[in-house]
Amino acid sequence: MIHVWIANSLVVALAVGLHYEFLYQLTKSLPRLRIRHRFRIVVGVFAALIAHALEVWIFAVAYYAMHHSEAWGGLSGNFNGTLTDAAYFSFTTYTTLGFGDIEPTGHLRFLAGIESLTGLVLITWTASFLYLEMRKDWDTQ
């Protein structure tokens, strides 16, 4: 069971580290952009979407690799074993949408649970970041 905890922790650490780096680079680069502040926020939103998509793909690659390994369990239901199906499952899990047409079994259930929690935290972190960026120069009167 320790291998499950270690693998899941590494996947989460990679996603959180990537997200931190994206937000840090945005913090440094947004003020330097020579465009109106309102358009800087749009740049921030698109950068955040790219970061979230990359994080989803980190989890998708982990699902794909673990599904094709003997000791991790698998993904069942409307799943044909492709990386794109793993990415679809990851997107629905990360956003906590969870259609339920693909179901994790075995140890993959733990990764699905932690991905939901990670996605929730990272999405709210992004929302807080963008809110603070908007408050910097927007007229609040």
Report on the structure:
The protein is mostly helical. It has one domain (2-137): Orthogonal Bundle (Helix Hairpins), CATH 1.10.287. It is 72% helix and 6% strand. It is built from 4 helices and 2 strands. It has a two-stranded antiparallel sheet with strand order 1-2. Helix 1 (2-29) runs parallel beside helix 4 (108-137) and helix 2 (37-67) runs antiparallel to helix 4 (108-137). The N and C termini lie far apart (55 Å). The model has no long low-confidence stretch (mean pLDDT 93).
| CATH-defined topology | Helix Hairpins
* Total domain count: 1
Using only CA atoms, what is the Rg?
17 Å
Number of strands: 2
The CATH architecture assignment turns out to be Orthogonal Bundle
Number of helices: 4
Overall shape: elongated
CATH class: Mainly Alpha
SSE class: mainly alpha
Q: Averaged pLDDT, please? A: 93
Distance between the termini: 55 Å
Described by strand count, sense and barrel closure, the largest sheet is: 2 strands, antiparallel
List the uncertain runs.
none
Order of helices and strands: HHEHEH
Which bin fits the share of residues in helices? over 70%
Estimate the strand proportion. 5-15%
Spatial strand order of the main sheet? 1-2
